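Appendix B, Record 12. Input sequence as logged:
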Amino acid sequence: MASSRQHLCDICFIQHITEDAQVWCPECEENFCEKYLETTLSDLLTNISNFVEDRKANLKELKEQKMKCEGDLQSSREAINKYFDALEADLNNKMQQAFVKQESEIETVLGNIESHMTKVKEKENLNCIKSIASDFQSFMVMRMMSQRTHTEETEQQNWIKSEKCHWVKISVIPYDIKSSEDSPPSIGQIKVQANCNKVTLKIRKSREAQLIGPISTSRNIETIQLRLKLECKIPCEYKFAEPQIMDGGILPSGELIFCDRKNGRLIILNSKGDVDKNITLLFCPIRFAIIDENSIAVTSADRVNIVNFKTGKVLRTFAEGLKARSISLHKRNFIIENLGKGYVFTDLLGNTQKSMPIKFSKDFYHHPVIIKDKLYYAEQDGSEVVCLDFEGNQFLKIKDERLFSPYGMTLDSSNLLFVCGIKSNNVVVISADGSTFKEIVAPNEHLNGAISAYFNKIKQELLIVTQNGNVSVYDVI
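Logged structural output:
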């Protein structure tokens, strides 16, 4: 019979000691005697104590590291502050230099202009000389004064054309830190902007009126006549769809200009009606106001765009967010239709001067025309011309059965209103007080959909254009 045998302690056995085991450890897969069992439990506790001490030591060191990091962070902030202080000082220095330069230039120009004051004041003695001199003497003096006046006028016009009298604005353009991953080279830029000067010259016509008496330019609405000068259609070229003409005008050069909303372009025709230029825009033009021989203010869905119509380049925009539709230029101010809400008056830079709230239809546009202190617009929905004061109070309504759905409206130099009917296909002329109304172009197919009227006061021409591009130019006699 086999005898039972006690297991030996594995650790003692390795040391060539024979000792009976008391415990079998399943994790170690070893037998332990009572001595080494106690030793193993002691090692575990020692390990735990070591872990505790290690973690506590790490916590203590983290507190020291935190204090060091806070110190490093403060040092970094101080370094950044010093860096930005230096950038601010540099930008401030540039700003001061810009102001000193512009102020010095304006003072120089001002001194030059004031030197002309004495010369001009000599001309104030003209009436006194005329009262005591003979006719011949008066003639000679007036001839001499006319020559001097012409010279002075030419120089004043040169002031307008030169950059010396441009309206200067200086501003800071902040640096957009979020847009760069690198350290900013500066915290901004100094912007010096030279805009159109704000001086309006009174030139020769007013002085000639003082010398030779008033010249009447008024028209008799009863005898006014139109003589057809040009009739054509804006061609539908191969790369463009059928045009949707929204407005038309006559440039200082005599060329005709139109905006085509559907095809996003401006079209310029020569005096014969041939296409001179197509200018592609990056927006859909609605209506426009001619500013000068180079630029034009064009409305789009939510802003006004100042465009160089020779290059098509947008020079600047303003009235962002405004539902800009019709627009006109009156005494260096824009009057802009805010769709369904009325009109907004701005200066040439787009700064709002005032608003005129009017609740009119959102389905049609209302081109504003100014006569003295009154504003006129054509209301297609009611087939009437409405007159308001600048506070928006209705002053007059003009209505006649011969005019159905008026749309385009313009003004001649005698304050006569020329209106075209988009549905009556005709042109009428109306006195400012509404007392006289005359149809001057009878309904005809070529005027079907007449949407815009423009009067060229220099050449006494009337332009009418329809939505599909039918063009009519009349001499007004």
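The chain has five helices and 28 strands.
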